[in-house]
Design brief:
The complex is a heterodimer of chains A (258) and B (215).
Chain A (H helix, E strand, L loop, with lengths): L2 E2 L2 H22 L11 H16 L3 E4 L10 H21 L3 E5 L5 H14 L11 E3 L4 H14 L4 E5 L6 H10 L3 E6 L5 H7 L2 E4 L1 H4 L1 H6 L2 H30 L4 H4 L2
Parallel strand pairs in A: 2-3, 2-5, 3-4, 5-6, 6-7
Helix pairs in contact in A: 1-10, 2-3, 3-4, 5-6, 6-7
Chain B lengths: L1 H5 L1 H20 E2 L2 H38 L5 H21 L4 H33 L5 H16 L2 H6 L2 H37 L15
Classes of the chains: A alpha/beta (258), B mainly alpha (215).
């Protein structure tokens, strides 16, 4: 027998899609254009690459462990957007980029993004495939590689984006102790404090998820982030109203049982 | 044909079709052919991901063999690396990953090395805490006070004399910290859904190719 399940999620998705569709229409017809602030972490990419160019030393980029088949997938997509842009700036300015790949699923994606970036800047000859290295899907191997590479190759700029566990603090700490300028980005809430404490620039949560929109400035992506802000206001209102109703004695539990 | 398979359009259409199927399957259940189709797609995804491990093996082999051939600095470590990698791979393939020989390597070599590297996290936690707790402005002072409160509240000896710090720390963790944490997680969950929609509709294809002409 055919059954429809998860009604509340369906209603939420319909509301979200309606708001997104309406804002997209407003944006397309130029009726309202949202103001969009590029975050310091994204603006710092030029500085990080510039430092590598000025000092003639490489930039080390770790792209995160997150599996694309789990809820870590979206932050990995944000990580790929930042990696693509960083590779493009490196190709344009002649900086050497070393990319540490931390999940085997990412190998073809990182390779194709690097190729695309270097092809766009007509610098395919400069792309060193030996610098696109798989480090094993383990924090131990990536930490060991980071410590060795920072020391041996005298890395001056370090970027770690995507999903990370407890090793985020090690990566930031090692980079800081070696005098690297660093950017960290993750949407794993448990790692936010270490990210902020250990890195020079950071992108947390939604900052990373909206990286693609910030870099491309594509109206569709910007509107998508904009719709998210409206939904947040809606959710905050619902939370406040729900709290007041629960406080005065109304039973709102049935909503959660839908 | 390979050009079509590698094109951005092909990937975007494929992602759209698969995402639509997954979303529909999340809401509609009880249609047996549909359930079977989704099970098969799920199995394909698992097999593709497992096959990607072969890519990792190939990637490391090519890079390290190149280094050995060119006799780059530290090339003898690359010989060690490739030998150990293939030895472990062959041992696991021939005997199974549950065999005593394979498990011996895992338990007596891999795990102690991993734990040694992991233990460095505590060193760096202390190191970055020192940096974070430097009182440079008002915000940093609040952070330092919060950290101090948590620290004192967790000292058993202090609790012998007074429960004030313990109660204050517990209140801070249960009310403001949990509230902010929930707000962050709700916001993050919404962000994940929005990325899903962007990817589903093919609005964000940054994982296939660059969209940007410059930041």
């Amino acid at each position: 027998m055919i059954t429809i399940v998860n009604y509340s999620t369906m209603v939420f998705l319909i509301i979200l899609s309606t708001i997104f569709g309406y804002l997209y229409w407003l944006n397309k017809t130029k009726k309202i254009m949202p103001r969009f602030r590029i975050l310091p972490g994204i603006l710092a990419l030029e500085e990080l690459v510039g430092r590598a160019v000025e000092m003639g030393r490489p930039l080390l980029y770790l792209t995160g462990y997150g599996s694309l088949r789990s809820d870590q997938g979206p932050e990995q997509l944000g990580s790929f957007a930042i990696f693509g842009e960083t590779a493009r700036i490196c190709a344009k300015s002649g900086a050497e980029i070393i990319a540490g790949i931390l999940n085997q699923e990412h190998i073809p994606i990182i390779t194709s993004l690097a190729e695309e970036a270097y092809r766009r800047e007509n610098a395919m000859d400069s792309l060193n495939y030996n610098n696109l290295i798989y480090l094993g899907a383990s924090q131990y191997s990536s930490n060991a590689y980071l410590m060795v590479t920072v020391e041996q190759r005298e890395v001056v700029s370090f970027i770690a984006t995507g999903w990370y566990g407890a090793d985020m603090v090690v990566k930031g700490g090692v980079a800081r102790s070696a005098g690297c300028l660093s950017l960290g980005a993750t949407a794993n809430p448990d790692q936010y404090p270490y990210l902020v404490a250990a890195f020079d620039y950071w992108l947390i949560g939604e900052d990373l998820l909206s990286a693609g929109a910030q870099i491309s400035k594509d109206p569709g992506q910007i509107t998508n982030v904009w719709a998210g802000d409206y939904i947040r206001f809606l959710l905050i209102s619902i939370i406040i109203i729900g709290s007041i109703l629960a406080w005065v004695g109304f039973n709102i539990q049935w909503i959660f049982n839908l | 044909m390979s050009n079509i398979l590698r094109s951005k359009e092909f990937t975007t259409v494929l992602v759209f079709i698969l995402s639509t199927l997954y979303v529909l399957h999340y809401f509609i259940q009880g249609v047996e052919p549909f359930d079977n189709l989704m099970l098969t797609i799920g199995n394909w995804a698992i097999i593709s991901s497992a096959a990607a491990a072969g890519l990792g093996l190939a990637n490391l082999s090519i890079i390290h063999v190149n280094k050995i051939r060119k006799k780059e600095s530290g090339w003898y470590w690359d010989i060690w690396m490739v030998s150990v990698m293939f030895f472990t791979f062959l041992l696991g393939s021939i005997t199974s990953s549950q065999s005593s020989a394979y498990q011996w390597i895992y338990v007596n070599v891999y795990q102690p090395l991993g734990t040694s590297i992991f233990s460095l996290a505590y060193l760096w936690m202390c190191s970055v805490a020192v940096v974070a707790f430097r009182v440079k402005n008002r915000d940093a002072a609040f952070l330092m006070l919060g950290g101090l409160l948590s620290l004192i509240g967790n000292i058993p000896m202090v609790q012998v004399y007074t429960n004030v710090f313990f109660d204050a720390k517990t209140w801070a963790l249960n009310i403001p910290v949990r509230g902010v944490g929930s707000a962050l997680r709700i916001s993050l969950a919404l962000g994940l859904v929005l990325v899903g929609i962007r990817t589903w509709l093919g609005i964000d294809t940054s994982y296939v190719a660059l969209e940007s002409e410059g930041g």
